[in-house]
Structure formats: structure tokens, C-alpha cells
From TrEMBL:
GO terms for molecular function: RNA polymerase II complex recruiting activity; RNA polymerase II transcription regulatory region sequence-specific DNA binding; translation elongation factor activity; zinc ion binding. NCBIfam families: TFSII (TIGR01385). It is found in: Nucleus. GO terms for cellular component: nucleus. InterPro entries: TF_IIS-typ (IPR035100), TFIIS/CRSP70_N_sub (IPR003617), TFIIS/LEDGF_dom_sf (IPR035441), TFIIS_cen_dom (IPR003618), TFIIS_cen_dom_sf (IPR036575), TFIIS_N (IPR017923), TFSII (IPR006289), Znf_TFIIS (IPR001222). This is Transcription elongation factor. Residues 146-260 form the TFIIS central domain. Belongs to the TFS-II family. PROSITE patterns: TFIIS_CENTRAL, TFIIS_N, ZF_TFIIS_1, ZF_TFIIS_2. Keywords: DNA-binding, Elongation factor, Metal-binding, Nucleus, Protein biosynthesis, Transcription, Transcription regulation, Zinc, Zinc-finger. Residues 81-135 are annotated as: Disordered. Pfam families: Med26 (PF08711), TFIIS_M (PF07500), Zn_ribbon_TFIIS (PF01096). Residues 124-135 have a biased composition (Basic and acidic residues).
Length: 305
């Protein structure tokens, strides 16, 4: 059931983006929003995975007030859905974690379980303490003392916080050193400086993604040794941005909606002061804004300008 929603929402998100980029009339977008409103019960995982909240939130600034209004309503509804789920089952983690076949990437592990389960570990030394010493590595492989010491350095950088097997790490360390040596042409000061810089970046606690990507081969040794400190940093920043975006998407969405719920307005039907509103410039800039209201208590809707 969850998968069905996921696919449906993903598909609609794509169609909406396409309609926007293609300059399609508001009516197409309204139709898609209407489908979402009627057919989808939101939960946090769904919102995160499909990133639909980001798409819909943008639409709240749409120039067509009808689109802006419908998007706002949709966000309110989803916010309620998520709120209800949280209240009714505190163990929201109990929702099935299966995914649509091949259409979505697997969910990231829940925060707080960063280190792999001991049973899955490929290597038994405490990852925080790993080095050429704990792993009893013979790094004297090139016949050149300086180069061998640099391989040792790369090994220590790559092994830190890793659970890969020593042979794999040593292989990568050798490849990185060989690439750096080839590029420098000798064991010059520039070469040594480069190796120290690579080591520091590999061991950086704030940039674990770099180490993993070098070890997995996602960053080839030849590429790695040409990366500037800034490029490695930007990798770190990108990973951090992605993480923050995922974590904050839902809360950001909620925050925006809450901002637009006002006690200033009173519902004429139920007399409650729980009115969600959004404003839009309907015609030209010198005409007054139109305010669209929805009572969060009884659902009554109205507008004024
Ligand atoms: Zn009302």
C-alpha cells in the first residue's frame, strides 16, 4: 500500500515539475494537485523520499492564486496527516520499509545507527583506532622510503573509521600514492605536501563521505590527487546540505504553514479563530492583495481583498 502511494506521488511530482517547466496552463497543475489532495495520505517517509513537499511548497508562490491556494491547502492536509500518524502511533518507524522496485533509492539508515552492526563488520578492530599498526600492515612496497611512508599515511587516512578489510584499504592507499607520485614525477616537497593534505582531508571527522568515496572508487585515485582542498571541502558541504535538506524538509514545510495560520481571522461558520491563509497579488501590483482563508477547524473557505 505504501509503495502505491510512493509511486503515485513521485509520478505526480514529476508531472507537476514538467507542467511548470513547460509553461502549461494552471488548469493542468490544478488537476494534478487535485489528484494528490484526494488520493494521498501523507507520512513522513513518503514526504522525504519523494521530495514532494519541496515541489508543492514552491507552488505556494505561484502567480496563479488558485494554484497557490490549492498548494497551501495540500500542505496543510499533509501536515495534519503526519500529525495524526505521530499521535496515533508513536512508533512510526514501524511502517514497512520496502520500496518500489528500482524506482527509488533505499532509505538512508535512521540517524543514530551510523556505525554498522558488529555482525556485519568486515573487520574487527575499533574503527576509530584503526591504523597501519592495528592492522599490522606491511607498507614497504615500493623500495623508496619516502613513498612507502606516504602509503602508510594514506593507509591511516583511509582506515580511520572504516570497516573495510586491510587488503582493500592497502590497495587503495597504494593506488592513491602511485597516482600522486606519477603526477609529481618525484618525491618532491610538493608531493609530500600533497600527501599530507590528502591525509588530513581523509581523516577529517566532518567529511566521512570523502573517505568512503575514495575507498569505494567513486572518486578515482587519479582524480583524488588532483582535487584541491576546496573541492574536497565542497564535497563535504554537499553531503551536509543533502543531509540537512532531508532532515529539514518536513519541519521546514510545517514551519511555513504554521506561519500562515492566524488568530486574526475568525471563521464565519464555526466562529473559531484557527484560520490558515495565504495572500496573492491577483491582478496588477497596485491593486490590493487577495487573501485566501481556510478554517482549520471546519474547512470553511473564503477570500477577500
Ligand atoms: Zn470554521
Amino acid at each position: 500500500m505504501a509503495n502505491q502511494y510512493l509511486r503515485q506521488v513521485e509520478e505526480h511530482g514529476k508531472l507537476i515539475t514538467k507542467a511548470l517547466n513547460g509553461g502549461e496552463p494552471s488548469s493542468s497543475i490544478l488537476k494534478l494537485l487535485g489528484d494528490l489532495k484526494g488520493g494521498v495520505r501523507a507520512n513522513e517517509e513518503l514526504l522525504r523520499q519523494t521530495r514532494i513537499g519541496v515541489t508543492i511548497n514552491r507552488l505556494r508562490q505561484h502567480k496563479d492564486p488558485a494554484v497557490a491556494k490549492m498548494s497551501t491547502e495540500l500542505v496543510s492536509k499533509w501536515r495534519e496527516d503526519v500529525g495524526k500518524l505521530k499521535k496515533s502511533k508513536p512508533s512510526a518507524a514501524g511502517t514497512p520499509k520496502t520500496h518500489a522496485n528500482g524506482t527509488s533509492s533505499p532509505a538512508p539508515p535512521p540517524s543514530g545507527t551510523a556505525s554498522p552492526a558488529p555482525s556485519k563488520r568486515k573487520h574487527n578492530v575499533d574503527p576509530a583506532k584503526r591504523s597501519h599498526k592495528t592492522d599490522k600492515i606491511d607498507y614497504n612496497v615500493t623500495g623508496d622510503l619516502t613513498r612507502d611512508n606516504c602509503i602508510r599515511l594514506m593507509y591511516d587516512g583511509l582506515a580511520f573509521m572504516s570497516d573495510e578489510l586491510p587488503d582493500e584499504i592497502l590497495g587503495t592507499a597504494r593506488n592513491v600514492e602511485a597516482a600522486a607520485y606519477k603526477k609529481a614525477g618525484s618525491t618532491s616537497d610538493a608531493y609530500k605536501q600533497k600527501m599530507r593534505s590528502l591525509f588530513q582531508n581523509l581523516k577529517s571527522k566532518s567529511n566521512p563521505g570523502l573517505r568512503k568515496r575514495v575507498l569505494s572508487g567513486a572518486i578515482a585515485p587519479e582524480r583524488f590527487v588532483t582535487m584541491s582542498h576546496d573541492e574536497m571541502k565542497s564535497d563535504e558541504r554537499r553531503a551536509e546540505d543533502e543531509r540537512l535538506e532531508k532532515e529539514n524538509m518536513n519541519s521546514a514545510m510545517v514551519a511555513q504553514v504554521e506561519k500562515s495560520i492566524s488568530k486574526e481571522f475568525q471563521c464565519s461558520k464555526c466562529k473559531q479563530r484557527m484560520v490558515s491563509y495565504s495572500q496573492a497579488q491577483t491582478r496588477s501590483a497596485d491593486e490590493p492583495m487577495t487573501t485566501f482563508c481556510e478554517c482549520m477547524n471546519c474547512g470553511n473557505r473564503w477570500k477577500f481583498s
